[in-house]
Specification:
The chain is mainly α. The chain contains 5 helices and no strands. The longest helix has about 40 residues, at about 20-60.
């Protein structure tokens, strides 16, 4: 991959700097998927830490060990809203990107765009493509009307 970039840079330095919407879309999809995993991880970690605290309480362990376990549990609780906020921001970023680039020929109709739309729908953010041809100025003309 790096070799392709270097080759493109050697052939045409300007081409290496051109935006690549399809690549950007893939990155945004990856961010959403990673944030899905992160939210699930922190929720699972909180459940595991709750079990550890409960186990330590039942066993009557040292107060220091209890304190450490409870601090770890509180850190897990603090990370859940933060990761959910970043996940929501990543979804909104993906949706905004599709709003701006859905009609781009390098993105429109690709399996990657289908994956992005499915990902948004899975999270309750339906995406509908903008109509291809819009009337200039939003005015509609009657049949036979001279314009």
């Amino acid at each position: 991959m790096f070799a392709c970039y270097v080759l493109r840079l050697l052939i045409s330095p300007e081409a290496a700097l051109l935006p690549n919407p399809l690549k950007d879309l893939k990155v945004k999809i990856s961010v959403v998927v990673r944030m899905d995993k992160e939210v699930a991880f922190y929720q699972q970690e909180a459940v595991e830490n709750e079990a550890i605290v409960k186990k330590l309480e039942d066993a009557g362990k040292d107060a220091y060990d209890m304190k450490q376990a409870k601090e770890c549990l509180q850190e897990s609780y603090m990370m859940i809203p933060d990761s959910k906020n970043r996940h929501q921001k990543a979804l909104e970023d993906l949706h905004g990107f599709l709003d701006e680039n859905a009609s781009d020929p390098s993105v429109a109709g690709t399996p990657t765009m289908g994956e992005a739309i499915a990902l948004l729908q899975e999270h309750g953010m339906p995406f509908e493509s903008a109509p291809e041809a819009e009337v200039a100025g939003g005015e509609e003309f009657a049949e036979g009307e001279i314009f």
